[in-house]
Design brief:
Layout (H helix, E strand, L loop, with lengths): L10 H31 L12 E8 L5 E2 L19 E9 L2 H16 L7 E9 L2 H10 L3 E3 L1 E2 L18 E5 L4 E6 L5 H14 L4
Length: 207
């Protein structure tokens, strides 16, 4: 039976609560939303910066990949307004992880290190459909901080337009909201990716 003595909120209290929630959201995520808009449009960008990677437009929700971590947690659960201090993510995707794929694994690691004090704002992961035995044996030593993701098995991963890991390995850049916003192919250099990440992290206060 409901407690009839429970205090009821007045309409003014409800409105104040909603305003406070909106203010807290704006303070926390407003800079990230602004940074994303600036990056895609160049709006209010005094440096006239142009991205080095290939923009994924519109941004593609990471939930569509249908991937999970080693603990079974869906990848998309790590991102969004309800997550405390979510990271950016460099995600290496490939079919058989041969030479170009392994070069991207190395590239992601080196770019992460080169971020210096901002390195802990960016995490790394890989989805590899097949991995050679020699790389598997070296993984824990060479890539201890890079998770290996798996398909949930419910459906085939849904890749963004232009991404086909079986044909060409790529690095996908995921923002703290869980959107794939940029992609890098083996033709891109580590300098390209590092410049983009430094610029994004400078604009953003989230992640």
């Amino acid at each position: 039976m409901a407690d009839t003595n429970e205090p009821r909120l007045s309409p003014d209290q409800v409105r104040r609560g909603r305003r406070m929630a909106l203010i807290l959201f704006a303070v926390g995520f407003g800079p990230m939303i602004l940074a994303t808009a600036m990056y895609y449009t160049g709006w209010l960008n005094p440096d006239g910066y142009s991205n080095k990677g290939e923009l994924v437009s519109p941004a593609y929700p990471v939930a569509e990949l249908d991937l999970k971590g080693p603990d079974g947690e869906p990848l998309e659960a790590r991102f969004g307004p309800e997550v405390s201090d979510p990271d950016w993510l460099m995600l290496v995707v490939a079919g058989i992880c041969e030479m170009e794929c392994q070069e991207l694994l190395y590239l992601a690691r080196q770019v992460n290190v080169a971020l210096g004090k901002n390195a802990d704002r960016v995490s790394r992961a890989a989805y590899l459909e097949q991995i050679p035995a020699d790389l598997d044996n070296r993984w824990s030593e060479e890539y201890p901080s890079m998770e290996r993701l798996q398909s949930t098995g419910e459906r085939v991963p849904g890749w963004p337009p232009g991404v086909s890991p079986e044909e060409q390995p790529q690095i996908l850049l995921v923002d703290p909201f869980g959107n794939i916003m940029m992609r890098y192919t083996p033709e891109h250099s580590g300098k390209n990716m590092l410049e983009d990440l430094k610029h994004l992290l400078k604009l953003s206060q989230i992640g």
